[in-house]
């Protein structure tokens, strides 16, 4: 019954915004494509360099990628996949309509059930940056001996970047440390949602997770790119935004995950300010990446694992991303990533692929995981969350819980492995 009412209200809300349906991803398709030969894989990668927006991309043969195809790109795309006999399936034939529905639901949830900033957050919706900050501030008030919140910097549009440090309250100094962040890429809403679930587990479910906090503290930056994250919640056209929001001529923002000063802009990044993978005019041109850099350096003497959450693709990736060479300690990295993947597959059947970024995905320099490893974290992992069943960018709100709990199973297992090894 409630569901019927909600659906009715959504239709009304969507109906009211009919004017906006005339533009903004209307008639854009999402296709799943699966390369079976190296040549097919290279052709698909070429599309990504030619301005096709891949929301999931991998290079391994037999692994699917997902790509948004605009009406203007449609003809070339279909001609290519047909002539090259690349397997493709239509997943969504009107991305604009899916986005409108998603944003209408978001608005409705916010109107019907405003967040007071007190108490636990449910996994039944996506939150604003302000709601997330209010939530961690409230945790620090409710658990003053175990939880500490600190403002570590400001975004370009002057939003506060805050970390939450979670301890077991024994006040022992100099413990080892796990650093987690989310929300690098604006449109990847499931990433901050998963980070909130980690926080909930470590703080509210402390008894069950005390082993993870005995010799380790956790420092978490829930949203690295709040300007972009907020932007994606403002309307249909903005929904697929990925970058920061600092203006560069007629375009906006750099890809924060190509902006780190480690082999910056050598490979897999763009020098064009309008591109989705724009590396920025210089390394660390973005205030948000400077904040992450400074945190990494200040934490690296006791930091053992850096974990950054993205979506989507079911991947656990470790350095390097700037070269196909592997670091000397790659077997340690591989063991941690494999443990996370196995734990998830054992628990839910979801298969995560693990390996070095360059070998599993594509070469891409200037990313935060390479920088964290270079800065001294023994283990540095990018987790690309599963997007199974999604027809838009994120899982629908009804499935957030399933994704974040699954993610936590993998993270918990990796943390246990870290604690055992280091
Ligand atoms: C990182 O690994 C090295 C080599 O195994 C070890 O000596 C060092 O203590 C580790 N760092 C931390 C913070 O545990
Ligand atoms: C997953 O299951 C296999 C087979 O039962 C077991 O050997 C392995 O240790 C499990 N891995 C994790 C991380 O739970
Ligand atoms: Zn991402």
Classify the fold: give the CATH topology of the largest domain. Aminopeptidase
CATH hierarchy, class of the largest domain? Alpha Beta
- The succession of helices and strands, N to C, reads HEHEEHEHHEEEHHEHEEHEEHEHHEH
Give start-end ranges of low-pLDDT stretches.
1-22
Radius of gyration: 21 Å
Percentage beta strand: 15-25%
Helicity level: 25-40%
Q: What is the mean pLDDT?
A: 92
Bound molecules: 2-acetamido-2-deoxy-beta-D-glucopyranose, zinc ion
Largest sheet: 8 strands, mixed
Helix/strand class? alpha/beta
Number of domains: 2
CATH architecture classification name of the largest domain: 3-Layer(aba) Sandwich
Order of neighbouring strands in the sheet with most strands: 5-6-8-7-11-14-12-13
Number of strands: 14
Q: Describe the global form.
A: globular
Number of helices: 13
Topology summary:
Elements: H1 2-16, E1 29-34, H2 38-49, E2 53-56, E3 65-69, H3 71-83, E4 87-92, H4 95-112, H5 129-142, E5 147-154, E6 160-166, E7 176-181, H6 190-203, H7 206-209, E8 216-221, H8 226-231, E9 247-248, E10 251-252, H9 287-299, E11 303-311, E12 315-318, H10 330-348, E13 353-356, H11 357-360, H12 368-375, E14 379-385, H13 400-421
Parallel strand pairs: 7-8, 7-11, 11-14, 12-13
Antiparallel strand pairs: 1-3, 1-4, 2-3, 5-6, 6-8, 9-10, 12-14
């Amino acid at each position: 019954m409630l569901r019927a009412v909600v659906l009715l209200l959504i239709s009304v809300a969507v109906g009211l915004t009919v004017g906006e349906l005339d533009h903004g991803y209307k008639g854009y398709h999402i296709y799943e494509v699966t390369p079976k030969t190296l040549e097919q894989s290279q052709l698909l990668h070429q599309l990504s360099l030619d301005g096709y927006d891949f929301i999931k991309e991998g290079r391994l043969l037999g692994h699917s990628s997902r790509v948004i195809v605009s009406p203007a790109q449609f003809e070339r795309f279909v001609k290519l996949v047909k002539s090259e006999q690349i397997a493709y399936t239509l997943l969504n034939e009107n991305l604009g309509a899916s986005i409108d529905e998603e944003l209408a639901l978001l608005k409705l949830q916010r109107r019907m059930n405003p967040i007071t900033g007190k108490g636990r957050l449910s996994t039944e919706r996506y939150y604003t940056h302000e709601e997330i900050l209010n939530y961690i501030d409230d945790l620090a008030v409710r658990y003053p001996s175990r939880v500490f919140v600190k403002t570590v910097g400001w975004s370009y549009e002057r939003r506060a970047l805050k970390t939450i440090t979670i301890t077991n309250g024994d006040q022992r100094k100099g413990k080892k440390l796990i650093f987690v962040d989310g929300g690098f890429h604006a449109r990847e809403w499931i990433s901050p949602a998963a980070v909130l679930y980690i926080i909930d587990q470590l703080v509210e479910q402390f008894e069950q997770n005390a082993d993870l906090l005995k010799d380790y503290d956790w420092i978490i930056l829930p949203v690295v790119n709040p300007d972009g994250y907020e932007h994606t919640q403002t309307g249909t056209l903005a929904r697929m935004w990925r970058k920061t929001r600092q203006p560069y001529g007629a375009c906006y923002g750099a890809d924060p995950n190509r902006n780190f000063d480690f082999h910056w802009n050598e490979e897999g990044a763009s020098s064009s300010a309008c591109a989705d993978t724009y590396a920025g005019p210089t390394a660390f041109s973005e205030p948000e990446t400077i904040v992450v850099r400074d945190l990494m350096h200040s934490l690296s003497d006791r930091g053992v694992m850096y974990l950054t959450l993205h979506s989507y693709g079911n991947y656990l990736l470790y350095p390097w991303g700037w070269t196909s060479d592997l670091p000397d300690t790659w077997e340690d990295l591989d063991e941690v990533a494999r443990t996370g993947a196995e734990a998830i597959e054992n628990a839910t059947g979801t298969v995560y692929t693990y390996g070095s970024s360059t070998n599993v995905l594509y070469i891409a320099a200037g990313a935060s995981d390479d920088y964290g490893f270079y800065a001294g974290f023994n283990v540095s992992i990018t987790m690309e969350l599963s997007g199974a069943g999604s027809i838009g960018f994120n899982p629908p709100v009804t499935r957030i819980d399933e994704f974040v709990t699954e993610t936590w199973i993998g993270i918990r297992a990796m943390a246990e492995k870290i604690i055992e090894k280091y």
